[in-house]
Amino acid sequence: MNLRNVAIIAHVDHGKTTLVDQLFRQSGTFRDNQRVEERAMDSNDLEKERGITILAKCTSVDWEGTRINIVDTPGHADFGGEVERILSMVDGVILLVDASEGAMPQTKFVTGKALALGLRPIVVVNKVDRPDERIQEVLDEVFDLFVSLDASDEQLDFPVLYASGRNGYANEDPSLREGTLAPLFNTIVEHVPPPSADPDGPFKFLVTLLDRDNFLGRILTGLVFSGSVKTNQQIHSLDNDGNIVETGRASKIMTFHGLERVPTDEAQAGDIISIAGLTHTTVSNTICDPTVTDPLHAQPIDPPTLSMRFAVNDSPMAGREGTKVTSRMIRDRLFREAESNVAIKVTEAADRDSYEVAGRGELQLGVLIETMRREGFELGISRPRVLFGEDEAGRKTEPYETVIIDVDEEYSGTVVEKMAIRKAELTDMRPSGGGKTRITFSAPSRGMIGYHGEFLSDTRGTGIMNRLFERYGPHKGNIEGRKNGVLISNGAGEANSYALGPLEERGVLFVGHGEALYEGMVIGENAKPDDLEVNPMKAKQLTNFRASGGKDDAIRLTPPKKMTLEQAIAYIDDDEMVEVTPKSIRLRKRFLDPHERKRASRAKQAA
After folding, report:
1. Sequence-distant (≥ 6) Cβ neighbours of residue 411 within 8 angstroms
2. How confident is the model at residue 40 (pLDDT cuts 50, 70, 90)?
């Protein structure tokens, strides 16, 4: 079987999923009259809504007698754990870069991993039909990036294609604006080596992706490194130390064709397949013939840098909107997630009612919370905190990020000033064309928590920020957090516009008329630094007297500020929580009783 295994890597929104759509169409994977959605590989609801790839997925197309297995990878560094695993399955990578934006930080992260494994890249400059394209500068940036990542001479001698994924063409000539994707298919076949698998050895298969099916149970996807496997063949799985995890049979073997998994009777060395029939085997385990005792080497995964506390929802409104509210259900769901997503670590707290969930970033954990919320879970979420480390001398270290900001020149001063407050160091500043400036910082991750919303306000929504984990460095000391206090409800009931009207002068409200409230719930942001307990339920005293001169005019309230899940998580302080239910996102104090809050505050000051 003539095979090629290739991964497509790119920064968020550089067009790789759209390019895969066109690869499907032009390889004859779909029927001419078949109705296919745009960005067909972004299969789950969150991916469609956000327009980003979250999960790595495999697919396959046939081109002139060669089967090309393609792995679509997430472009966001928060989902880098997905990418690190799948790189062991492929023999080449297609690096997609935007003809205007060029090489971005997320590109650097994945490309560095691919080059370290010795994979030879094919560079595709996408969106060449953009009016602000700067093809030659972008190619120079890519070459500089490869050099900075210690690419070998062979890797630096990469083929280049100029493409428009949306319009379905790729050419070796940068001036052409028409054609098909045939040059890309031919370059993959010529440039990517066939799998270096051993067809005559015993069956060995490394699990890199884990999926679930209601009928088949666990579906384990990966590359067959040697030998072949037939349906119902006896197999066993080994962990990284060579211990047997379980023994069973390959009840179903599936290969990929387009968007579907297709059952097959036998799979050969070098192919990317899925196996069902095992119940305990997980990512990085080796599935093999019972005679094999040595496991395959799995790629090490970078450690998590951020954690949040997931707790049982204990607010007075708990259980009204969700169906999954117990700690046992939350525990099972989180451990199931940690099993399939190797970049997430879950540890149970001493009180057994909360769990510390560590991941790569706010977006990754935010997507997990949003997914659980849609499944019917109710949760209490704490403020994210970074995971500290220690150097050889025993000094405290913390994670740093490379932050690249593209902003209009008029706002660059404000951004530099705000980043300096957050202990970020300016490492580069250059004009990027079109009146924009590209500013690069090295910033402690701790300082970046909660800054994105403020950044969008400062740049009037025009700024673009990209962040990437850089290293663990020396602890930067105290970083100033949120400057404003909050307005806290002092009782339970329904918000009343008569009470909310005067409160608008105190700050920004998060609730509107008629919303259900409870004691300790955060209903707005105070204009001053202190927290303020208020009564948002006070109603007007009704009497028989009428005010003279028409003073009984209706109260006109400004629409309340409604936060998304990510905004709420970034906004809260250490003594606050986000209450997440399938229908609502509420902010609250960790201790609802004011006396308990005072005690906790005094204890913190004493410490």
Report:
1. 458, 459, 460, 462, 463
2. very low
Say what the alpha-carbon torsion angle 567, 568, 573, 576 is, to the nearest 10 degrees.
-170
Q: For the purposes of burial, counting CB atoms within 10 Å of the CB of 294, is it exposed (0-12), middle (13-18) or buried (19 or more)?
A: exposed
Distance CA 27, CA 67 (A): 10
Q: How far apart are CA 131 and CA 433, in angstroms?
A: 12
- Which residues are CB-neighbours of 361 under 8 A, at least 6 positions away? 77, 78, 305, 306, 467
Question: What confidence tens digit (pLDDT) does each residue in 245-301 have?
Answer: 888 888 889 888 877 788 989 888 888 888 988 888 888 888 888 888 888 887 767
46's tokens = 């969150």
Asked if 578 and 569 count as a contact pair (C-beta separation under 8 A), the reply is yes
Mean predicted confidence (pLDDT) in 95-113: 78
Residues 498, 500, 506, 507, Cα dihedral to 10°: -150
Tokens of 395: 């000094």
CA nearest to 90, candidates 109, 110, 64, 65: 110
Transcribe 180-206 into DSSP letters: -SHHHHHHHHHHSPPP--BTTS--EEE
Q: Which of 101, 103, 125, 102 is nearest to 112 (CA)?
A: 103
Distance CA 444, CA 423 (A): 7
